[in-house]
Amino acid sequence: MRPPSADLETQRRAMVDHQIKARGVRNPLVLAALTSVPRHLFVAEEDWSQAYADRPIPIGWGQTISQPYMVAVMTELLGIGPASRVLEIGTGSGYQTAVLAELCDQVFTVEVVPHLLQRARAILDDLGYTNVRFREGDGSAGWPEEAPYDGILVTCAPDEIPEGLLGQLKDGGRMVIPLGPAGGAQTLYLVTVQGERVIKRAVMGVRFVPLMPGGEVD
Questions:
Q1: Which residue from 70, 79, 67, 125 is spatially nearest to 104, judged by alpha carbons?
Q2: CA 157 to chain centre
Q3: Which of 56, 57, 17 is nearest to 34 (CA)?
Q4: Reduced to 3 states, what is the DSSP secondary structure of residue 201?
Q5: Each residue's pLDDT tens digit in the chain (218 positions)?
Q6: Distance CA 185, CA 98 (A)
Q7: Residue from 66, 84, 93, 140 carrying the catalytic annotation
Q8: Distance from C-alpha of 48 to C-alpha of 174, rounded to nearest angstrom
Q9: How far apart are CA 174 and CA 166, in angstroms?
């Protein structure tokens, strides 16, 4: 039996207080977004009782919804504001997309798995988000027609930063991206572009699903 909606809201507030705020995330807008977005709607109904636990949850096709703490950390690192235009690589469940949409002007999100993209779009449409645009395709190519972006958030791990994505950042823009082999040691990086300089700062060890080139998934 699924938890009542009041219980889920209580769990969501506890998630923000005990898993996110208590572990150092301070941006009040990020905390408000995590409090507002109903994470349980982005997972299967049978997983609702675990929706606000601090762990990833499988969503099918070898993909997961990231743990709430990781979503909060990556969003805070991106440093976006109400006027920002953001590119997300790896729509997945759509949960991270919704958090970004709470914070910025426009989100452009790219997903290689058609079924996931369709499901995420339906959920986000039902929730009333009108500032998200969707594209099916190879995330490593980004969305060059809408570049440049104030921020790029990558929710899957390539071995190296795709050159095409770097070229789509504004001068002064930020990219948050996990790098490393599938199933091996990965590191989350904050990458900033300043003129001709690309500054790459390691943040923490992580584990993400790999970035999949277009055409590999049915």
A1: 79
A2: 12
A3: 17
A4: strand
A5: 456 667 999 999 999 999 999 999 999 999 999 999 999 999 999 999 999 999 899 898 888 899 999 999 999 999 999 999 999 999 999 999 999 999 999 999 999 999 999 999 999 999 999 999 999 999 999 999 999 999 999 999 999 999 889 999 999 999 999 999 877 889 999 999 998 899 999 999 998 888 876 533 33
A6: 28
A7: 66
A8: 33
A9: 9
- Asked whether the whole model's pTM tops 0.85, one would answer yes
DSSP-assigned beta bridge partners for residue 109? 88, 134
Taking phi over 0 as left and psi of -120 to 50 as alpha, with beta for the rest, 54 belongs to beta
Three-state helix/strand/coil letters over 105-173? CEEEEEECCHHHHHHHHHHHHHCCCCCEEEEECCHHHCCHHHCCEEEEEECCECCCCCHHHHCCEEEEE
HSE-up of residue 192 (Cα within 13 Å, Cβ side)? 9
What is the C-alpha end-to-end distance of the chain, expressed in Å?
Answer: 33
For the record, the structure tokens of 108 come out as: 């452009």
- Closest residue by Cα to residue 95 from 26, 47, 142: 47
Tokens linked to 15: 């998630």
Q: 84 catalytic, yes or no?
A: no
